[in-house]
Amino acid sequence: MFVHMKHIIASLLLCSCLGSACALAQKAVIPASHSQSSPDTKTNRQRRTSAETNPANQSTSFTSIELQPTVAYLRDHGAAARMVRIRFHGGSSYKAATVYTQFNGREDSTTLPASTAGMTDYELALPGPPVEKDAQLFVRLVSDGQTYTARCIIAPARQWKVYLMPHSHVDVGYTNVQAKVLAIHMNNIDEAIKIAARTANYPVEARFKWNTEALWVVDKYLSTASNEKKQAFKEAVQKGWINLDGAYANTNTSATSSAQLLQLFSTGARLAKDYGMQIHTMFQGDVPGASWGLISQSNLTGVHYFLSAPNANDRIGSSGQWRDKPFYWRDASGQQQVLFWQSSPYSIGYTLKGSKIPNFFTVEDPKPYYTGKPSDNFLNPYLFDYLSQLEQKTFPYNMTLLTWAMSDNAPIDPELPDAVKAWNERYASPQLVITSVKQFFQDFETAWKDKIPVMSGDYTEYWTDGIASGARETAINRQASDRLQQAGAIWAIRNKPGYPADSFHNTWLNLLMFNEHTWGAYNSVSEPQDPKAIAQWRYKQAFALNAQQQSIALLDSSTNGAANAAGDNAKEYTGNTANAVDVFNTLGQPHTAVVLIPAALSQAGDQVKDSQGKKLPSQRLSTGELAFLATALPPFSKQRFTIHAGPQTTGTKATVTANSLDNGLYTIRVDPNTGNITELRKKGYDGNLADAAGLNQYSYMPGDSAEKVVSSAQANIRIKEKGPLVVSLLITTPAPGANSLTREIRLAAGSDQITLINTLDKKAIGDKESVHFVFPFHVPGAQVRYSIPWGSIRAEADQLPYTNRNWYTQQRWVDVSNKNVGVTWSSPDAPLFEIGQYPTAGLLGGLHNSPRWLAFTEQQPLISSWVMNNLWHTNFRRDQEGPTTFHYYLQVHGAYDAAVVNRAGLEHHQPPVVTAASGPASERLFFDINGGPVYVENLYPAADGNGVLLQLVNSADHTATVTLTSKNALSISESDLLETNKKTLSDSFEIPAKGILMIRVARK
After folding, report:
1. What is the set of domains in the chain, with CATH numbers?
2. Which residues fall in a coiled-coil region (predicted)?
């Protein structure tokens, strides 16, 4: 997405420079107007003329000359000759002139023709062999009886090959309503095929190729295309005219779950299979940063090349330092890697040419625009300055890549092949090559494989802060993702036939598209009531709402209806199911939890018994739900519980007073004025783990300053749940920026978990603001760790340099631990958190080169859940209104154990599923898994009906052995995203430290 022109027109003025590589447009620009006259650059020898600005006065001749060295080589009499640009100062050159050169031990002369228009500069070919060391050039120019002289130093310059990747940046919205945006991208495919056919006989470097960028475009194109168009598209792909990269959209990858991140590439895998090809590449435009989890899953997706072309300067921190520094990006296990290249920003094409042609966003039905002058507003002189800078930075390679887009959601540039063809006819170097991501990476790796460095660490993303502008929908989407995983697991547990793989796939796409980086219109902040801005948010919001409804329906369908015979793992039930419920544990680990039975399913009474008739601790809650304690629910299982009339059963009691709670394991005290938790103790651990300021503080920051932060006080505390199983305090306080705030603190007897339920009824406020819930733990010397897709990292220690350190995005948990004690903090609803006191204060607007971006994260045991903000100047929502609920879970533990913490995070995100009883009394997966520190990230049936798929993650720093056992003979094989049986495995196999493995398990 670009920034609207009226906000940053001054920034574009920076891009007219000639002497150095210009500052590029921001994300990027929707111009208010364009001019067809006065092109900035031309690739012939005559540059901008005085006639263009003063046609009536051609007597204003130049007064001096300047020599500008370049890295370019001209084609000169069949040879490559170094090029120097002669700049005319004080006027233009109109009359014929002779240029005498002394260089590299040779003398030469060149005649400059007369020009009625006037030349402002001239490209001069230098005599002699290539320069091998710095050499001085002396030029004497004679014109109209006057002599002008100049000198410069010519340094050695390599022969360059520059790959140009044509595309149109895919924002799903932003520039216009999504239907119009999609129509432009779909038309680009048709136009690309025509242009590629027209240029099929051009020199190979100038033959047109089109990069669709995001497979969302292709998916929609194929869903509506005629059979004739589909066939033409397939042929174009096979010819290399249309190029497909693996990712479905330009996504905030750290905000997606592991399962979503894998599904990001499922459409590409299907297309590749259908077309008899392989897709090993991904392209990500605009978004600065990417999750390390992408690398962990590379063997599953087959993606081994990653091109990033981020925004030029909008809220990108120091990520621009990674431009043109390719590296093999190795995963945490050290077993997988992806060749990563962050190119210059994707807005170069727009800056040089797109801003000089009609404004496509004011045209109702924009089409590719032909200027008739393909070389105007092209890469001269920008490219020479850019390459010169690379050489000055000791860039070790002789090839690089630039993307070429006319802006966000813009029509194709139909003149690019002719511009490239003309360029290569004139310049021996740099040679231009119209490319795909695949071609560029293959050529680069072939030439330089042994010289490419290897890096490890998380490229912590910057743009995830914007998702807190839609906190309610973000929570809905995260909950739907967890629910969908549970639905797939239940289908596998029950061995239920008819697994609706396509319905699951479509739901995953909705979840992904909510995490796509485009959240709203370019004027979402400046003009929030604009009908197009409102329509774009509704379209975006619908992804989360549709995923919510789809996931609920799929979960219902997974628990309803008959399952296949499950053999010894199923036990029939012949009793009355009217007073019974089934409880599913969708995790690959035993799960002790307080189970909440809806009031409608628990009318028989308040007493709960297990399958052996044993009474379980239970309690009717104030909400009407019946709570009971289920101990050690078996992994991947369904268990039946019956409900009976009679008193609720007690075991170990939890107690509550006016400002304290105790369940025999945890003791919690609340400040009577603020409602914050000022005492947190756990049996067996010394000391209070809450800082004096208190945990779960409400914090409201108006504007941009931490000094303006206000909190809540005047707490009204009442007992909500009185025990004996569940106790809770409900704290109501006035809340700045909101209509009301309620915070419930809940404990349950027999449960090693503290539950916090915060509900904020937000006021719509257009002024800049941030909302936090702050957790200052008393854990001296703590290291902060947090979960990312497919694993976890240590803040700072496991991050690449030049990445975001102002805030972080957690998947399931954050852990604050020293060598003796720690606290695991988890939120299924709110992904953003900060380490320390308000490192996001002042992050308003574009933040170009702002000193507020942190370069180092100081470890400290203060975690702030950043639940809401409206700090952006575009794209994201200006304000939020109404109630949103945020759940938090706390668990105190000893020394950090990755396996324990990851299992706790899974439990917080996937609680037991309760349904009306039906079918067998118990069901279990047809095999058991014993993997020590290995946890099951995801489980679901194979699409072909043959067994189930599992993704396994080794959370430990050492190799772990996984063993599968069953009463049935098992067929076990390593698998991938296409569910291919890649390699047969035995019943016991190893997973490397921090590694992941996808397997298929079926009955023989």
Report:
1. 50-154 (2.60.40.10), 161-459 (3.20.110.10), 591-633 (no CATH), 926-1004 (2.60.40)
2. none
